[in-house]
Amino acid sequence: MNASAAKFKPGDRVKVRFEDRPGHLRTPWYVRGKTGWVERVYGKFLNPESLAFGRDGLPKKTLYLVAFNQCDLWGKANKADKLLVDIYEHWLDPAA
Amino acid sequence: MSTASDEHGHDHPKHELSHYAKRIYAIRDLLVEKGVISEKDIQCQVEYQEARSPANGAKLVARAWVEPAFKARFIADPKAACAEMGIDATAINEFVVLENTERVRHMVVCTLCSCYPRPILGRPPDWYKSFNYRQRSVVEPRGVMSEFGLELPDNVEVRVHDSTADIRYIVLPLRPAGTDGLSQADLAKLVTRDSMIGVMDPLPAVPE
Prior knowledge:
The structure holds 2 protein chains of 2 kinds.
Chain A: E1 13-16, E2 35-45, H1 48-51, E3 61-69, H2 70-74, E4 82-88, E5 92-94
Antiparallel strand pairs in A: 1-2, 1-5, 2-3, 3-4
Chain B: E1 3-5, E2 11-13, H1 19-33, H2 39-51, H3 54-66, H4 68-76, H5 78-84, E3 94-99, E4 104-109, H6 118-121, H7 126-129, H8 131-139, H9 141-147, E5 157-162, E6 167-172, H10 184-188, H11 193-197
Parallel strand pairs in B: 3-6, 4-5
Antiparallel strand pairs in B: 1-2
């Protein structure tokens, strides 16, 4: 996996963009606008938001495993529990 | 399934079909009629889909339990470990093994649809695709697990993986206690599909 060109590294805090637009979006609603951190950099993959419409999926997008505290998503949850989502780079901004 | 032959040479189910089933059969008939695919292609594909089953995953898990070196390879490069066992995982883009420990438990869902490591686990169960599981597994994973019979203490960390992209996940469950003397083949019988999705433990060892 080529992770060399990745914008974020494991441990970086990231905020998921709160975006909605017509099309095929792979970022679940429940994490949009939420802050978590990068657990793992998976490398570059064809962009499913383009593939879904029969296009070439290029340029490839870096895919991350992003972790969230369950209590940051839902309020009430076990403090240790996490939710981990595979998110493409163009959905992520740096967070403090 | 009860079937009836019709004039174009293959069987359709006799009972009333849903809208989508009717549409699928119509598309199938058209593809065959126009020579895009053959009846044989369809049959081969059905056989291929049916041949993939959780038995593949169970073999991988049982060997990982008894051979630490294999477990390390399985976690480091799951697709290579599959090839070594004669399991074809090439259809998976990226394959990741989530190892359960005494302190950390993993559970897998796809809230967007039904992404699932089919070469390793076969077809997903209906509940995996249900709105109920897809909603509740992310919001209240402990509640879902308890309905499968798994009660976790508060000091165990639950990690729910929402499989929304090219990665396919399998849980490597903890080996049940009291299974020291079992062969790999007998261990594999304890590794249920649901334990590799992460919603429950493997079956307990059968007392002598």
